[in-house]
Design brief:
DNA-directed RNA polymerases I, II, and III subunit RPABC1, RPB5-like_sf, DNA binding, 236 residues, 4-stranded mixed sheet, Dna-directed Rna Polymerases I, Ii, And Iii 27 Kd Polypeptide, Chain: A, domain 1, Eukaryotic RPB6 RNA polymerase subunit, alpha/beta
């Protein structure tokens, strides 16, 4: 087998794994994703997204995802006297696989414009290489992007999605608490959220679940003595 053929085959295999992990990530966050999409065989992936020459067509892999009823409920703030019918802080997600070797400000602006024109609440961009310094600074400073989607933009490197890190035996189960569940937890233990152990939103597992600053996640670990035990982390 020629080196070029091997590289093409390897890229197809890698993108298949990345695609499945991305679908699993969206499902685990609470979006409506079919199980068949998470377990798509390689042969079907090749038929759907491969070209006649055996290359991968990343633009055909793009997809949108709608939050499930449970996810909408979890992301809806508790009703108050001033806001008796609060809007959920979640909506339709757009996921895009970018094949450019360099991803800069123009790419980022184009992506933001696509999200706005399409009415998407948030977006996930999966890139080959890290963003340029200017694009990364603009992404961190929302003001640099102008009016963007309400839910913001997330960027993942392809190499970080080749395996699903949450399937590793050493990674415990993470469950996001709703705003109401968070309030009940703090009230039960008479705590302020700042007194909880913390988890950085840049932590790989936190990033996988799309944790936002201020949210609280329940972490369930196995224990040889207690069977299972739960702890909580405040996202910062």
């Amino acid at each position: 087998m020629a080196d070029s053929d091997f590289a093409t085959r390897q890229e197809m295999l890698d993108m298949w794994r990345i695609y499945r992990t991305t679908k699993e990530m969206c499902r685990d966050r609470g979006y409506n994703i079919l199980e068949s999409e998470c377990s798509m065989p390689l042969e079907e992936f090749q038929r759907r997204f491969g070209t006649e020459s055996g290359q991968i067509n990343r633009s055909q892999m793009n997809f949108s995802a709608i939050p499930s009823d449970d996810m909408v409920k979890k992301y809806t703030p508790p009703a108050t006297a001033k806001v008796p019918d609060p809007e959920p802080a979640i909506g339709t997600l757009w996921v895009e696989f970018n094949g450019d070797e360099a991803f800069g400000m123009k790419n980022l602006r184009d992506f933001i414009n696509h999200l706005i024109s399409g009415g998407y609440y948030s977006g996930v961009m999966i890139v080959i290489k890290p963003l340029s310094g200017m694009a990364m600074r603009a992404l961190r400073a929302a003001a640099g992007l102008g009016e963007g989607p309400k839910g913001g933009v997330e960027v993942f490197l392809e190499q970080d999605l080749k395996i699903n890190i949450t399937k590793h035996e050493l990674v415990p189960t993470h469950l996001l608490l709703s705003a109401e569940e968070k309030m009940q937890l703090l009230k039960r233990y008479r705590l302020k959220e700042t007194q909880l152990p913390r988890i950085q939103v840049t932590d790989p597992v936190a990033k996988y679940y799309g944790l936002r600053r201020g949210q609280v996640v329940k972490i369930i670990r196995k224990s040889e003595t207690a069977g299972r035990y739960a702890s909580y982390r405040w996202a910062i």
